[in-house]
Design a protein that fits this description.
With 378 residues, the protein is an alpha/beta fold. It contains twelve helices and ten strands. 49% of the residues are buried. It comes from Gordonia liuliyuniae. InterPro entries: AB_hydrolase_fold, MAG_DAG_Lipase.
Length: 378
């Protein structure tokens, strides 16, 4: 059985969602797939900052195995240009509180893909809140929020956070933010001058240049926010474009962070995905950049927050995943400071297990068996 859930949402003090209908509804939405054989007292909640998980591939398989499963859509569904990670934390908290009020005794939080950093951030702040504002100094204050902790945390084909991923992926050959065609040929992995396998000294220089570019954008964002503050008007934010956001050398050279993956990206050839409008992080507001994309200022550092959780943790990764590489999984697994943790590869698993029903079944079986071992499947 499938049910649409309307979950009360804590409103923001600024307009960061374009749709007036969405803002006035005062709700976020989720899809509940219920186990039909025996009523479940446990619920699995799948989260992502912006993707629509109401149709997630794992919902029905978990319900078929006796675990009610909920796919959440945050207030930023399909549009992360003004996304604030701290508001996503509020949305996850609202969903867990809603499920507990419905009578679920156990709630298991599953972060998939970009939901990995969010899930870690949420559980960390639910157990021991420390964040009093966004990096721009705005609400919410998570130390004053009602954030019920989950009973366990799962990371599924996940990465540690959007700021780290963008920094790993951002194109350091872009030297003029207003002109994507002005490029540093010494760092251009698409020019044909530099070919894989890339030597270690090139990778080191490339990575340093990626960090430098992220920090240049952050410095520019701070300057623009200072100008807005000095103007003393009602306008508090501005949009901007980021060119070249899918240029991780791992997309081109599969010997780096080796796995079973094919060269390229989930969005097609790397050079195309790097510039196409529909791929990662091309549009942002100033305040959103600090919250989700700034490598130095974002609060969403998945490894840091995984180190702060006390609940059981299961980390699963696909060995053929073109998006979340094996090192992302081991980074989050190694960060967990207690021993009740497990790392499970999904052999030949793609990022969303598209066209791989046997892999979906393996993931669902693994998750349910692990929950039963921990008395979390009721």
């Amino acid at each position: 059985m499938t049910e649409l859930l309307g979950i009360p949402m804590q409103a923001s003090d600024r307009i960061d969602v374009y749709s007036g209908v969405s803002r006035m509804a005062g709700k976020i939405w989720a899809a509940l797939h219920s186990a039909e054989a025996t009523p479940s007292k446990s619920a699995a909640l799948l989260v992502h900052p912006t993707s629509n998980f109401m149709g997630h591939y794992l919902l029905a398989p978990l319900a078929e195995r006796g675990i009610d499963a909920v796919g959440l859509a945050t207030r930023y569904i399909g549009n992360d240009s003004s996304l604030t990670m701290e508001n996503c934390v509020l949305d996850v908290g609202a969903a867990i509180r809603f499920l507990r009020e419905r009578g679920y005794e156990k709630v298991v939080l599953i972060g998939n893909s970009g939901g990995g950093g969010l899930a870690a951030l949420y559980q960390s702040q639910a157990e021991s809140p420390t964040i009093t504002c966004t990096p721009a100094g705005d609400p919410p204050d998570l130390t004053r929020a009602d954030l019920p902790p989950a009973d366990a945390l799962l990371q599924l084909m996940a990465h540690p956070g959007r700021a780290q991923v963008l920094t790993d992926w951002i194109d350091p050959a872009v030297v003029d933010e207003a002109d994507p065609w002005t490029r540093d040929e010494e760092l251009d992995i698409f020019s044909g001058r530099i070919r894989p396998p890339f030597p270690p000294e090139f990778i080191e220089r490339y990575r340093a240049a990626q960090f430098a570019r992220n920090r240049r954008i952050t410095a520019w964002v701070r300057e623009q926010l200072d100008r807005l503050a000095a103007a003393d008007g009602e306008l508090q934010d501005l949009p901007f474009v980021v060119h070249g956001t899918t240029a991780d050398p791992r997309f081109v050279d599969t010997a780096i962070d080796p796995s079973d993956r094919e060269p390229g990206t989930m969005w097609g050839p790397t050079e195309v995905a790097n510039m196409m409008p529909a791929s990662l992080a091309h549009y942002s507001s100033l305040r959103s950049w600090l919250s989700q994309w700034s490598v130095d200022e974002s609060n969403c550092d998945g490894a840091l927050h995984m180190s702060r959780i006390s609940v059981p943790a299961l980390v699963m990764y696909g060995t053929a995943d073109q998006v979340c590489f094996p090192s992302y999984a081991t980074q989050m697994f190694d960060a967990v400071s207690h021993d009740d943790k497990r790392l499970v590869p999904v052999t030949d698993g793609l990022h969303y297990l598209s066209g791989q029903p046997e892999k979906i079944a393996f993931v669902a079986d693994t998750v349910v068996d692990w929950l039963r071992e921990h008395d979390l499947a009721r």
